[in-house]
Prior knowledge:
The complex is a heterodimer of chains A (103) and B (450).
Chain A: H1 11-19, E1 24-25, H2 26-36, H3 45-57, E2 61-67, E3 70-75, H4 77-99
Antiparallel strand pairs in A: 1-3, 2-3
Chain B: E1 3-8, H1 13-26, E2 28-36, E3 39-46, E4 53-58, H2 68-76, E5 80-84, E6 88-93, H3 108-136, H4 139-171, H5 181-211, H6 215-237, H7 247-273, E7 283-284, E8 290-292, H8 322-332, E9 343-347, E10 353-356, H9 360-370, E11 386-389, H10 391-395, E12 399-403, E13 408-412, E14 421-424, E15 427-433, H11 436-449
Parallel strand pairs in B: 11-15
Antiparallel strand pairs in B: 1-3, 2-3, 4-6, 5-6, 7-8, 9-10, 9-12, 10-11, 12-13, 14-15
Helix pairs in contact in B: 3-4, 3-6, 4-5, 4-6, 6-7
Amino acid sequence: MAREQFQTLSEPMYYILLSLLEECCGVDIMEKVKKISGGRVSVGPGTVYTLLARFEENEMIHETKREGKKRWYVITQRGRVQLLNETLRLKQMLLDGKTGGLL
Amino acid sequence: MKTERKWLFDYEGDVIAAYLEEKARQGYRLSSFMNSVFGMVFHFDEAEKTELKYSFQVLGRKAASKDSVFKTMCREAGWMLVYQNEFNAVFCNRDLDAEPIYSDDTGKHTEVMSSYKNYKKIFLSAFLVSFLSEMFRRGLLQSFYWFILAIILIQLIFYKIWDHRAKKAMQEGLSVQELPKKTRKLRNILLNSVIGLYFTAAPLIMLYHAYIGQYNKIAVLLVPIFTLLFMGIIERLIVRKQKTEESWIRTLGFFGAFIVAVVLAVVCVDPLIVTESESYTLTVTEEGEIIGNEEMPYFSSLDYGFRPTAEREFSVSTFTSVAEKMMLVHEHVEIPSDDIRNIMLSVEDFHYIIYLYQNEATARHNLAEMTEGMYLYEQGNSAFDAVYVDEEVYKKEEYRWYDEWTGEYITTTTHFDWRDTYILDGSHIYVVRISEEELAALYETLSARG
């Protein structure tokens, strides 16, 4: 079954939104994602570019400034809610894993 | 500097990237590429053997690398743009461990949709060229049409397979994969076979047309070639310089360029195509031999011509060779269905009149109508000519025949024996004896008929 857009967030989506809690540009996002995930997750420029466009279209982020060909973004309230929901979902999954005796 | 040009049927990004990386290892650096219905054509320059990481991107309207933001992001991530055209872009990175431009399937959706749109555009232009070919429906050009159509169909079928699988994978949340290697191999074998077959057959067909003198058919082949050539020039000089990102302006520019290219191509080949509209009339014998081959547009086939089975008018051009005319005659002319006078010859000084008919019954009827008491000698089955000579003439060894139409004298050494049939210039002739009185009556009848 097709996944509804942003009902759940993919790993790159999650980390990009997370990095946008502070204003940053495309390259900053790539570096930040790597840093936040301790090098476990990395995103390519094409992925960042496509996701930023989709997030902006869905008002989850907004552009804050432009300098030449570079653009800076920051997360919106709507984006925060989505990110928080996803974090809570993941947390619940972790608890369920414990309850189920996995952890 | 040594350069190399390579042709690939693959349009799958990963396959192309792997190929470019291998070429870099061999010492060839990509300089440009071109999309075509046949596949991708890559141009390489000789360079130092090096390890590079390549990325082949399909450009969509939004994700186009013409978008400077995208290019900037790629550059900052170490991906340098090598070359791009309207459909694709190639980036390379010196860092072999660099993160791919698309680290997940996020961009694949756009990629699938965009490549579909791009190929649709290429297919459409190829269809236009094919349609142009179909309009002319001439020899080689017609075969070119089928050739293009076969290529398009193979590409389209395999593209659709890929498109279907990719969309299904995305719906199921799975990774978008390229076509399996075996499927790609099958596609490439099919495409190679069609292209190989055409380029083997085409020179043979051209030689054949040249042999029978159908130079115009070879010339018409130049139309799609010239069109593609002019399209390339216009694309390089004008379309590529368009700064606008508005797709409708770009599309308009593309089709405008195509129309201009077609017009230019037709104008270039014009002398060999347009002159075909000039009408010429053929005259042939029942055996299919051409005995008249002059420009006589004012003659209809009723006065001067031959008997096409389906239609009465038949035109040929300056460039129609004798061999081609013969072929057409054999193709169209069957047994004469009516009794039309073919040609009239008169003996020098008009002492003797020769009337050639294409049908024996008509000859006999007209002769009987013109003079009484004459004698028509019949022999053979395919009589369509009748010759009048008198006793003195047929004893001579040499005759000079005056052709009224050309105004020339034809000399023949044929000895007309009494009561026999002969073949003169490929036509059967019937020798008939008439008296001086009958001849005078014949003149009178002919004069009265104008």
